[in-house]
Fold:
Amino acid sequence: MGNVLPGLDADKKEVIEGIAKEFLATFAAAYAQAYGVEVARLKLKEIDEEACEDPDKPKKELKYREKVPQTDPLKTGYMIKQGAVVKNWKKRYFVARPDYVIDYYENQEAYEKGFKSKGSIIPAGYRVEEDVDACILQRLKAVAKKLGADENDVPAPVKYPEHTFELYHDRRRPYYITADNDEEKKEWIKVIKDCCYRCNGLKNPDPIARVAFKDGFYQARRECGYYYANYYSGTEEQILSDTIVGAIDARVMSEVYSSLYSMPGGYAVRRKVREQIIKSLDSLVMAMVIPSYKGQVETTSKMKTPLEDIIMEKKDDIIDAQNKITSQLSEKLDGTLGEVIGDDVNKGIDTLVFKIKDVVAKCIPLLRENVVKVFEYVTNKAKDNDDIEASLPDYFKSLDQAKHHGRHRSKVLATYEPVREILKNHPLVENGGNAFYNGRDMVEQIIDGAAYTFEELFKELIKGTDALKNGKTAAEVMTTCKDQIMPKFDADAKLLPDEVSFEITRQVLIEMLTKKLEPLTKDMRKELKAAVPKAVNKVVSVDERYETYIKKVCGDLIKNATKTVDSKGQTKEEENPDENPSTEL
Structure:
């Protein structure tokens, strides 16, 4: 880069490299620490959950997964895209993926056959500009002002075709895309705006690494004093690069850009030189970021197993330390809880639990019908199809979607809907929205549990058979799967009313108690945090122990209430005494 571009001499290049090296070194240390802390935190949470697990809790028969993989694109279709270098326009088949990344292919056939895309747009940090010409002119005038040029010298930008919109980022390449018509433009803009908002951008699939990146990044920014901007969108490398470039802009580049004021050639030349400087700066920084971050990921990924082994060796000591904090919380909070939890709370728990339980019980026949129907649907599809191997992804897709798109889902939702009114009218509930939807998710989750169990069992039972090439065999295996799974479904469904009513009521109580206890326990929790040794205060969280304690208190309240009280609020010992006559003579 050297002296080729005005203002960027060897000294300034050295300063720029120094800023980049300083931040990357600071981030490397912060990232490694954050990774270790997150590994320890998750392992401690696992140990804690194991220690607190209810030994009397019934075991589930079906297999459950946390999240159903979403494969359907948000939107697909042809549009015309301007090239990044040659600037020519080419028709491309666009696919907005479920993870909010936007791919574009040579054509629809290339996408459907699974060919590699021509390119991908990671829209994190981008914004959609609907009036391209006006926005470009506005930005050109802003650049002219920075370069000390007269706005009147700014040439009118080339007009873009009708129905064109722009994906714009302050530092990354823009994308100019033309839809077929105004309606398509509006539809695509709506989808892409949502992608810009929702796309995380982080590429590392390791959830620990993703948390560590965020924590390490913010820690490095604080240590380096980067308080003036919030660069946090895009891939890990883009975020690091944007942050470093932001620091360089603040410390170095103002002088460089000022030197362009006196440059001969007018606005057009100055703008061209400025663009070259920015491009060279971005390339220089990114060339430092990529190998640095790659090395950090490789190093930290090797930390996980040794760290977990160390934690497991200290498992008993850790549980003791966790229990000590819980004991301290209990000693300090028991009296306060007695003031907050009155008879009205205890009386309210019973009716809430039993009313919700009654509603959920009415959902079970509909849930069962939904599961049977989707099993029969894929079985009938397979019966006359001898290319099961090619069709299996579609069959599994039907199973995966059963939870949200089953034929009887509307009936299930309508049957569950009274829970909303129960929560709305109950004196313990201030805002039952989250509890309502979480309960509904629990009700519907059993459908996905049955579907997932079906998929896994089918893959196991077809081993050694011709099921992938013989529809009759496949259908017979599917029937066997159904016959084996439905008793498991019935066993899990039997637990559902108790589980859903318990979780909804517990969430209601947690929200109520947390709100009431927050001002009363603030100073106490602060004292406990100060007492935690610095060596472990990033891992042993008083706040997490507090939340666990409140969660346990609420669970115990519900268990005690439902053991002794019926749905009418009568104690079971007092209910209908004549039904149990004395055996005395």
